[in-house]
Each structure stands twice: as structure tokens, then as C-alpha cells.
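Structure ticket #2291
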Amino acid sequence: MTSTFHNETKLGEVNYRLSATTDTTDAMVLDLLGSLDSGEVVADGRLRLPVEGGATVGKLLARVLTAHTRLRSRPSRHANANQPWTDTLDSTLRTEWLTAPEPDAAKLIRSIADDMARSATAIRARLARVGCDPDVPGRELSPAAATLLGATSGQSQGKT
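Resolution: structure written out below.
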């Protein structure tokens, strides 16, 4: 015996229709269609799985899709996030770090991050790449640490 369940919902501008059909082979087929009011299809897919796996796969899909939606809908707080670093930016970062009067590394990193419109994590990671010790303002990495952390050649010796 075949049985089918349909559900429809609208999220934003997209109308979603999900159908779950079971057949006599103990398999379930999930069909998803997402379309705009104009009729343009923006999502389309089919998934075939054992009936007993339906609830588990449903929970997995819900978690993955919820997490993905959160990531996609969260705008970056930092205007330059994910933008490439240039030689000029690297030089500016290195100069600010090595000449800063602020002795507190965390405060200095936050200040530079605000100035460069990047996250504190991005600044801390980049400091090591330009040959600066991210734990001590004004200090370069040792040659061994620079090699280990992949600092740009010559920068750990004070060259830019």
C-alpha cells in the first residue's frame, strides 16, 4: 500500500512543498519543490531512504538547514571580513603592532581590528603571518616561531 503526506509552507518569497511517499518496499521518497510566486523553481530535489530512517534523517536535515540559515542570514559585523590582505595592509598592521604604546595585547588587537574593520581573530591570526608576536605588542616573532607559523619571508627580521 502506498501512502503520501504533503506539506506546504512559505518562507520569505519562496513557497516550499514537501511530499513524503512510502511504498510497499519499505522505502520513503521525499520530494521537495521550492518556487517563487512567479513560478520560477529555486529548489528541487528527491531523497530515497528506508522508512525507519525517516525520523532520524528529518532531525538531521532540520539541524543542518537551521544552522545553514543562521550562517547565511547573519551579516558580518566587519566591513572588510573575508577581503584579501594586501601588502599595504600587512605593512600597516605590522607597523601599528611594533610601534604601539598600548602594552595590553588584547586591547591593542581590538583597537586595530576596529580600525581595519576586521575581527580581532583575523588580526591576531594575521599578526603571526607578518612576523609579529600576537601575545606581546612591539615584539617580532623569533625566527623559529616565524618559520613554524608561516610568517612571510623576511618580516620576522624587521624587513617589510
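Closing remark: The longest helix spans residues 54-73.
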